[in-house]
Write a structure and sequence with these properties.
The chain is of the alpha/beta class. It is 65% helix and 7% strand. The chain has helices at 41-75, 82-98, 101-110, 115-149, 160-177, 179-184, 208-244, 249-289, 294-312, 314-324, 327-337, and strands at residues 7-12, 15-20, 25-27, 185-190, 196-201. It has a 5-stranded mixed sheet with strand order 2-1-3-4-5. The model is unreliable at 1-35 and 349-371 (pLDDT under 50).
């Protein structure tokens, strides 16, 4: 369905009627959803305070961390290996995702002020980079697993363009996953939310429930379950491999970093996925027997806001886990900051390997890698 920018849709009793001179959608109280209508004043007030504060913090910290990673990797772009290239694309996707946060913060306070076109663009950009970040983490874990456990390089060091092409395929796949956002995202005025205009997905009446459930299931599978299984398998195998070797500080450091990687992923993403599942089940139960209380609906709304913000903080943690822990990366950062007058403790020369990744302490194929 194609809509002109000067059209308005009023949805009442499941039917759509067109009027002129307005480009936002409106929900009547007796609209398509029916059933229990809860006052969402408390959850909206919570959103208007919590989201701007946490998103602003995430934006500042995330841009600084990912910005440093991107600058260092760009300066050393001629000597990047496979893992560095994945880190480069991860930093880029995290940065682009963070740049959408000011729009969501403004929406939480004043509503969506930017029209339907920018709603589609911002929402799709967010979706692309959200999935891309998750998939890049999966690629990194797979590359680690093959190089450390099996001493096999997934891609040739001498052909970095092959790795860049692989990353490009990931970006294109994420673009395909964003197609529903390009089609269905609209600036939507919901009278049940005090006529606040928000950027939301508006699915066709005939298949609204199927689209809603389908996108949720797709996210749970591609955005969490499969990456989580891959990371658990790969890093568990790496840990087992490390435990068989001789004891040493490098190995202990590697184990600590692996545990931190896995814990950070599950701590930031698991609460959101559980809450989203509860929300899906609650909505389904409400449609079946209309027994959902307003208190439980409000509690889930608040929990979704809190856990969503927690999950996005993973963009701020990624630079620390995947770059700053590396001795060689810190050495390059020190070299870059020294002309600006910054003084950091110099990294001992013996800890930096010429063959290693910018963010790694040792050769990729060594099972004693300290990552």
């Amino acid at each position: 369905m194609s809509l002109d920018s000067d059209q308005k849709i009023t949805i009442s009793s499941g039917e759509m009627n067109f009027t002129d001179d307005y480009d936002n959608y409106t929900y009547d109280d007796d609209g398509c959803c029916g059933g229990l209508v809860c006052d969402q004043k408390y959850s909206m007030h919570f959103d208007s305070i919590f989201i701007p504060v946490l998103y602003s913090l995430a934006l500042i910290v995330g841009l600084v961390g990912n910005g440093l990673v991107l600058v260092v990797l760009w300066k050393k772009r001629r000597s990047l290996n496979v893992t560095d290239i994945f880190i480069l694309h991860l930093g880029l996707s995290d940065t682009l995702l963070l740049l959408t946060m000011p729009f969501w913060a403004i929406e939480a306070v004043k509503g969506w002020l930017f029209g339907t076109a920018l709603c589609k663009l911002t929402g799709a950009l967010f979706k692309i980079n959200f999935y891309c970040g998750i998939f890049m983490l999966s690629c990194i874990s797979l590359d680690r697993y093959l190089s450390i456990v099996h001493a096999v390089q997934m891609y040739s060091r001498k052909k970095p363009m092959v790795t860049h092409c692989c990353c490009l395929m990931v970006w294109l796949f994420c673009l395909l996953l964003s197609i529903p956002d390009w089609i269905f995202l609209v600036a939507f005025k919901d009278s049940r939310r005090h006529d606040k205009i928000e950027c939301v997905s508006f699915y066709p009446n005939s298949s609204r429930e199927s689209w809603h459930l389908g996108t949720r299931v797709l996210y749970h599978i591609l955005g969490f379950t499969l990456p989580a299984i891959m990371m658990l398998f790969c890093y568990s195998c790496i840990l087992l491999r490390l435990r068989r070797g001789s004891q040493g500080m490098q190995k202990k450091r590697a184990i600590h970093v692996i545990v931190a990687l896995v814990l950070a992923f599950f701590i930031t993403w698991t609460p959101y996925n559980i809450t989203l599942m509860v929300d899906t089940i609650q909505n389904k139960a409400h449609k079946l027997d209309n027994q959902t209380s307003c208190d439980s609906t409000t509690a889930v709304d608040v929990a979704l806001t809190a856990t969503t913000t927690l999950s996005y903080l993973h963009c701020c943690i990624n630079p620390v886990l995947y770059a700053f822990v590396g001795v060689k990366f810190r050495q390059h950062l020190l070299d870059m900051l020294r002309p600006l007058g910054f003084t950091l403790r110099k990294v001992p020369a013996g800890l930096v390997s010429r063959k290693s990744s910018i963010w790694s302490d040792s050769v990729d194929t060594s099972y004693t890698s300290a990552f």
